[in-house]
Design goal:
The structure holds two protein chains of two kinds. Chain A is mostly helical. Chain A is 70% helix and 6% strand. Chain A has one domain. In chain A, strands 1-2 form a two-stranded antiparallel ribbon. In chain A, strands 3-4 form a two-stranded antiparallel sheet. In chain A, strands 5-6 form a two-stranded antiparallel ribbon. Chain A is globular and about 75 Å long. By secondary structure, chain B is an all-alpha fold. The longest helix of chain B has 33 residues. The chains are: A mainly alpha, B mainly alpha.
């Protein structure tokens, strides 16, 4: 393999891995903060127990998000030095602000939260976890701002072979950011919601503290129901924006080779990229026009037309992304997203009928759903990033021109092998720890241990100490 | 206003903050296996930096982000040129963080022992490599006309660069030892103090040799004659003062002194480089400077405003965190697992 392919594989592997932990952190931090707020407001110790129980799981997840995140920041310079030179004037700003505004906040207040259980006043301690949750989500906004600029470059001009900033506000209010940011963050909320729901369901199924875990399941259900509906609506606006800003990506997402007016929506297709055609296709007439333009008549442009147009502007070459991956990635994401909505509504109905504790079939399904958001999240990012190929900055810089000339293939083999090994090891440790800390549930209070509860909880609070 | 200068100073400040803060937690990680007598001691050591190490590491992340934003060419050349050393640092920081966070999650000897190795190597390796890397920069690197690094890994491992790595390791270890005397008590504290006294003089010799050879191997003193100027002198005075302050049991002041050596030493490196960022050994005109490697003035202006607002806030709440956890970590405070 060449350096370019190796660098791309490494970036793909490390990014997907990083983005297993990030969305869960986004959602779980908010959920833990909500649980602690319930405890603070009601004084009900069930919420305190839940805060600690899910708080421990949160710390495990957070740690892995942090350590894999540093790799991401270094990797731009390490493997994509020419890209970094080209975009640094613009791309560097959100990255630096992210660290300054969000990472410091997050790490300092997580330290205060973990070690401050007995030292800080209740209100201050609650504020700490909220600041962690806010900072996590703030960091998402900044990094998405950087990514949005790669999708839809705005507020720049090209000077001496690199993009220079002309309008910072344009970058802050990049249309792409305004559709991509809510969708991504809310997908994180769904991930966190399904995690808490699934674990709570598991505990109810095992008969551990059903009353307490019903409370967390309820919080998670409301949270997931709202968030999963919002992923659908925000996703829809994002797709409509893509039709305008990146028509080639949209055409690839739909496997649309020829321009259609009105356009039909493809339900199933076997993509033949080489011959630029699809086989065994099932199409719903008019549907793509509806989705893309909200009417029954509008034209949606196909890849062949767009390819011809791009060749005219940028010269010869293939400007069609890997269609099958993008097409199926999109369908997997949307399909799973619909299942999440369905699950959340089912859960709410069970709550309504007061069967949340007893519906074991639902518990089993909810447990399985713990794992699904990661597939949806990954599929979504693959659509976004692969759909932009062959560009790294859409219309401005080809991925092939971004790679580091100073780094040899051997070096990348070494780094890719070590990241894969270390990340594989971390995954095993993370899963092991999450199971170890969730499986025992919340211990029942027996009479003997009574002194360890509410009044003097210093001992059990210290469980957070290293 | 000269925004390039401002950003050069700000990035220097970020690295100074990083070396000062992460310096002591590297030191604690390196010393932990040697001064602990049992598992409780080890946990005390880890808990002295427990609430801080992650936030300390963010200084590095911010420095990286700031380089990317303010001097994209510096970021690109440095990070791609130091590919394998940085890979090692990344891997070390990963296992170190995992060691801290997960060590006490499972009460099995094998688990804890593995975590101890992660913490020790994860602290030692970056402490060493940062010294090697910084030494290489001030020695000059084979940077071509295309601004890219044209050397190999072994070019980075010259004896003088290795000496630089040893010097930084010694300095961070010392800094960590003094930190431990401030944050622990009883026999553990006494052992930390003993270690500090023991390694102070050898470290001093090492640093002195490193500094003197600096005249020969680096660009730092090119502008000066034999008298090195105020800052190097401050670094030396600070180092010597630290020893006597320690002997006088003034641990807080001694910590300030080791910190001072790190701070002044880092300033010497940055000041000596200015206006270069990475001097080229192939052709001095191919060096990266604050002018040819920087971002546009608009970007630097925006970044300056952001830094002006947020850096004081960050310093404020980090100080608050150190204030909250100002008490010594006692053996009694470690819960039985």
């Amino acid at each position: 393999m060449e350096e370019l392919d190796l660098a791309r594989w490494q970036f793909g592997i490390t990014t997907i891995y990083h983005f297993i932990f990030v969305p869960l952190t986004l959602g779980l931090s908010v959920l833990v903060a909500i649980m602690q707020t319930f405890w603070y407001r009601t004084g009900d110790t069930a919420y305190k127990k839940l805060t600690k129980y899910f708080g421990k799981l949160f710390i495990i997840v957070f740690t892995l998000g942090v350590v894999t995140g540093i790799v991401q920041e270094f990797q731009f310079g390490m493997n994509w030095s020419e890209y970094s030179r080209f975009v640094g004037d613009i791309f560097g700003i959100p990255l630096a602000i992210e660290a300054l505004m969000a990472f410091f906040l997050e790490s300092t207040f997580l330290g205060l939260w973990i070690f401050g259980w007995n030292r800080l006043k209740k209100g201050v301690h609650l504020l700490c976890i909220w600041l962690v949750a806010i900072a996590s989500n703030l960091s998402a906004i900044w990094i998405l701002m950087a990514n949005s600029w790669m999708q839809v470059p705005v507020g720049y001009h090209i000077v001496g072979g690199r993009a220079e900033l002309t309008d910072f506000v344009a970058i802050l209010l990049n249309e792409r950011l305004l559709v991509q940011m809510p969708h991504t963050i809310i997908a994180g909320f769904v991930t966190g919601g399904l995690f808490v729901l699934g674990i709570s369901a598991w505990m109810m199924l095992r008969g551990n503290q059903k009353e307490i875990f019903q409370k967390s399941a309820r919080i998670a259900l409301v949270f997931t129901a709202v968030a999963s509906l919002l992923t659908a609506t925000t996703g829809h606006s994002q797709a409509q924006d893509t039709v305008q800003s990146q028509p080639m990506k949209m055409a690839a997402m739909e496997g649309l080779w020829e321009t259609e007016e009105p356009a039909s929506f493809s339900l199933f297709a076997i993509i033949d990229q080489e011959n630029r055609t699809s086989m065994r296709e099932v199409r719903l007439p008019y549907m793509l026009s509806v989705l893309a333009h909200n009417n029954l008549t509008s034209e949606v442009r196909g890849m062949n037309d767009l390819q011809a147009e791009m060749e005219e502007i940028h010269g010869e070459g293939s400007y069609i992304p890997p269609v099958a991956v993008v097409y199926w990635g999109f369908r997997i994401m949307v399909g799973l997203g619909m299942l999440f909505i369905f699950l959340a509504i089912t859960g709410l109905v069970l709550w309504w009928k007061d069967k949340l504790q007893t519906a074991t079939w639902f518990h089993k399904i909810a447990i399985a759903f713990i794992f699904l958001p990661y597939i949806a999240n990954t599929a979504g990012w693959i659509v976004t990033e692969m759909g932009r190929q062959p560009w790294v900055v859409y219309g401005l810089l080809l991925t092939a021109d971004g790679v580091s000339p100073a780094v040899t293939g051997t070096s990348i083999w070494i780094s890719m092998a070590s990241f894969t090994l270390v990340y594989g090891f971390l995954a095993a440790v993370a899963v092991f720890l999450i199971i170890r800390f969730s499986k025992p549930g919340i211990p029942k209070e027996n009479k003997k241990k009574k002194e360890a509860s509410e009044d003097d909880d210093s001992k059990d609070s210290d469980a957070f100490v290293y | 206003m000269d925004f390039q200068l401002i950003w050069f100073i700000l990035i220097a400040v970020l690295f100074i903050g990083y070396f000062f803060l992460e310096g002591f937690d590297f030191g604690v990680g390196i010393l932990m296996p040697f001064i602990s007598r049992d598992d409780v001691d080890r946990r005390v050591c880890i808990n002295t930096i427990g609430p801080f190490w992650d936030a300390n590491e963010v200084w590095l992340i911010t420095a990286g982000g700031a380089m990317f934003a303010a001097f994209p060419h510096w970021y690109a050349t440095l990070f791609s040129g130091f590919y394998l050393p940085l890979l090692l640092i990344l891997l070390a920081l990963i296992v170190r963080a995992v060691g801290f966070e997960f060590r006490s999650k499972v009460d099995k000897p094998f688990w804890k022992k593995t975590a101890d190795h992660f913490i020790f190597w994860g602290s030692l390796i970056p402490a060493f490599i940062w010294g090697v890397a910084l030494t290489n920069i001030v020695m000059g690197l084979p940077i071509g006309e295309d601004m890219n690094f044209h050397g190999g890994l072994f070019g980075l491992l010259s004896p003088y660069a290795i000496l630089g790595g040893l010097a930084s390791t010694a300095m961070f270890t010392l800094h960590g030892a003094i930190f431990l005397t401030l944050r622990t008590e009883g026999p553990l504290m006494e052992r930390a103090e003993k270690v500090a006294k023991m390694i102070w003089i050898p470290s001093g010799v090492l640093l002195l040799v490193f500094a003197l050879l600096g005249y020969l191997y680096t660009v730092l003193f090119d502008e000066f004659g034999l008298i090195p100027g105020t800052l190097p002198l401050l670094a030396i005075i600070s180092f010597i003062a630290g020893y006597f302050l320690l002997r006088a049991n003034r641990f807080g002041w001694s910590f300030a002194a080791t910190g001072g050596t790190i701070i002044f030493g880092t300033i010497v490196a940055f000041e000596g480089l200015f206006p270069k960022l990475m001097p080229s050994t192939l052709n001095i005109d191919w060096s990266l400077t604050v002018y040819n490697a920087s971002s546009s003035e608009l970007t630097l202006t925006i970044m300056s405003v952001v830094a002006l607002i947020f850096l004081p806030i960050v310093l404020g709440y980090q100080a608050y965190s150190y204030y909250v956890f100002r008490q010594r970590v006692t053996r009694d405070s470690i819960p039985t697992s």
